[in-house]
Amino acid sequence: MAAHSFTYGKKADQALALWVKLARAHGLMVKFSGRDISRYGLTQPQFAVVELLGHLGTMKISEIGAKMLVTGGNMTIVIDNLEKSGLVERTRCLEDRRAIRIRLTEKGNSLFTKTFPLHAQFVADALTVLTDKEIRELSGLLKKFGTGLQEKYADQTQ
Hints:
By secondary structure, this protein is mainly α. It has a domain at 34-127: Arc Repressor Mutant, subunit A, CATH 1.10.10. It has six helices and three strands. A three-stranded antiparallel beta sheet has the order 1-3-2. Strand 2 (88-92) and strand 3 (100-104) form a beta hairpin. Helix 1 crosses helix 5 (106-126). It is globular and about 55 Å long. The N and C termini lie far apart (43 Å).
């Protein structure tokens, strides 16, 4: 059976081809990064929370969720599991007693300082398929793309 070849106009075809490449590259990076993260006994969302808190310090659950682009309910489950593992703890926010702040425990901070440099090296190693110049160019283009999308669709973010 022959495959069908559709065309939607030069610009649309070019955009779709780019989108497929971007999605595939993202999917592969997530897959391989997830394998690396699993060595530390964490899921990707758990590792992301530990990384955020390790770099930025104590944060409200809503702030963590906004940085990670996930809903509050999902974030609560991730935080619950990290708390059960003794990696984070909840504290009441002094300025707003309704708000809960999350911070790394000593065990969580120890895990962060031990594992994040190893994961950073994994990411650096994965990117060796590109030259330093290509990494800078791609980084700049992706930032421009993301910023442009935010501005173009600002009224639709949520």
